[in-house]
Amino acid sequence: MRILIAAAGSRGDVAPYTGLGAALRRAGYDVALATTDAFAPLVRDAGLEFRGLPADAQGRGSVAGKRELMRAATAFVTELGQGFADAVADGTDLLLLSPTTAQLGWHLTEATGTPSLGVYLQPTAPTGDFPPVVTGSRSLGRLGNRAAGRFALRMADRVYEQAVAELRRRLRLPALSASAMRRRRERANWPVLHGFSTALVPRPSDWRPGLEVVGTWWPHLDPAERLPAHLEDFLQAGPRPVLIGFGSMAAGDGDRLSEIAVRALRRAGLRGILQSGSAGLTADGDDILTIGDVPHALLFPRLAAVVHHAGAGTTAAALRAGVPAVTVPVAADQPFWAGRLAALGAATDPIPFRSLTAERLADALDRVVRQQAYARAAATAARHMAAEDGTGRALEAVRQLTG
């Protein structure tokens, strides 16, 4: 049986599906992952077939206002929709759709009759428990949160309208708006598995049937992989360091962020590792090391704390390692995850990206490293996560769908 996972966006929007796909392959399924070309090595390293999607999310992690983000999202989705059917539809028995690809994939399933399942990394359905994760707003009360959640879905529909119209024409389907298709799927209780921990987001009691929180899907990691020798040497040369990185965010802010990072580390009296990322962080010194991409699962358990942008994947990885965090959310769902970490007691209150200074970062680092309550809260969450089996729950759902 052929399963195709379709995902697009930043690295954090794609990498978890390599682990999920590898588990499905070990269970005997023929698995392909359709995503943008930048992530072909990730897909192939996990032993999965790569299919290219016609869009590029690279370079879109720079800080922008909400209007600019909407324009960029619309352009990305429109580009994604061009050729989507070619990449996805051929010979697929089951389609697993991410939040980014679901609004396109639904129309393919209508045209081909292929069954589908949502595999989401963020909660998108309206709930009274919290406001929409993409808005970064404070709670508006239960009624206000639900109303804001419905409004956020309508805004997402607008992002997809042009791509959906063109895709339906190509598939020779009658005209149907993105919002009408979404409502149709909601009424049918289309099943969605959410690949994050209930330690961070328990399943809201007011969600419709078919929406489940199953636990985190972790990026594929080769059992033979090790940290680079120079990083291993640095880790062994002194006390546990702090990692500072912003992933695919903050492109163009490297000089400012590097200076802030170095000054904060020196002020707090801590050793540090800068992860270059899209921002291009870099610094040299006996007590500071600059690195590129390395597996979170290998590095994070060796750290005193992590300073990060609060992307969903990095948030989960730090918690899994039982390591406290200082969060500097940049955009999109990052303020939501940052707030969740703080509510757990596993991170300090978030420092908004535009408000980041060396003094604020040093103060937060001093507290998170030296006050053991943060580490204890992270360790408690790590034990909770270790008891979850997100991949196993997904395999069970796939078996039920495929008979």
From TrEMBL:
SUPFAM superfamilies on file: UDP-Glycosyltransferase/glycogen phosphorylase
Residue span(s) of domain Erythromycin biosynthesis protein CIII-like C-terminal: 286-388
Source taxon at top rank: Bacteria
Domain Glycosyltransferase family 28 N-terminal: 3-74
Signal peptide: none
InterPro entries documented for this protein: EryCIII-like_C, Glycosyltransferase_28, GlycoTrans_28_N, UDP_glucos_trans
Keywords associated with the record: Transferase
Listed name of the protein: Glycosyltransferase
Organism encoding this protein: Streptomyces yaanensis
